[in-house]
Amino acid sequence: MKTPRLSRLVQTLLLACLGTGVTAVAGEVYRWTDAGGQVHFEQGPPRDRDAQRLDMHESRPRAERTDPPLAERRDRQQRLLESFEYERDRKRAAALRERSRQNRNAGYCDELRLQWRRLNHPGPIFHTRADGGRDYLSDAQREGEKDKLRPAYREACGEEP
Q1: What span, in angstroms and rounded, lies between the C-alpha atoms of 96 and 106?
Q2: Domain residues of the chain, as ranges?
Q3: Radius of gyration of the chain (CA)
């Protein structure tokens, strides 16, 4: 029993909505001014005042102009934006690679600094043999070790030792 009433209610509301939509499109608009100088717009003319009927033209969205120079300009702009994005991505990737290299080199640089400090230590420097004995470095051998270490130090640390 409730279903037919609900159905009639829905039908009534639907008809009311359709009816107001049609009147809004097909209705007339009147312009009039009250005693205080305020301008009013209404769908019907006032009974006690003169009103001006306005012709309302149906507004349709304009189609986008397909102007050849405009289309060419948009294409150029799009290509330019794409090239900027490409360059930005390349720079980001290069910066990421550089940061990664620096992070890898940071540990290696610390090792090289420690070796450099040992080679510059004023006391004797030696290498331990497998049998536990020591091989001491002469001054010439020490300088040779420094010469081998210097290019790696520059590369990893980015500075002179």
Answers
A1: 15
A2: 68-157
A3: 44
Q: How far is it, in rounded angstroms, from Cα 78 to Cα 33? A: 52
Query: In terms of Cα–Cα distance, which of 145, 99, 106, 142 is closest to 124?
Result: 142
> Interior CA angle at 9 toward 5 and 15, to 5°?
145
> Which residues are within 8 A (CB) of 161 and not within 5 positions of it... i.e. 6 or more apart?
112, 113, 116, 146, 149, 150, 153, 154
pLDDT digit string (tens) for 82-126?
999 999 999 999 999 888 877 777 788 889 999 999 998 888 988
| Spatial distance between the Cα atoms of 64 and 119, rounded to a whole number of angstroms | 77
| CA dihedral angle for residue 68, residue 70, residue 71, residue 77, rounded to 10 degrees | 150
pLDDT digit string, tens, across residues 21-77: 544 455 788 888 888 888 888 888 888 878 888 887 777 766 666 677 888 999 999
| Amino acid present at 35 | A
Q: Can you give the pTM of this predicted structure?
A: 0.36
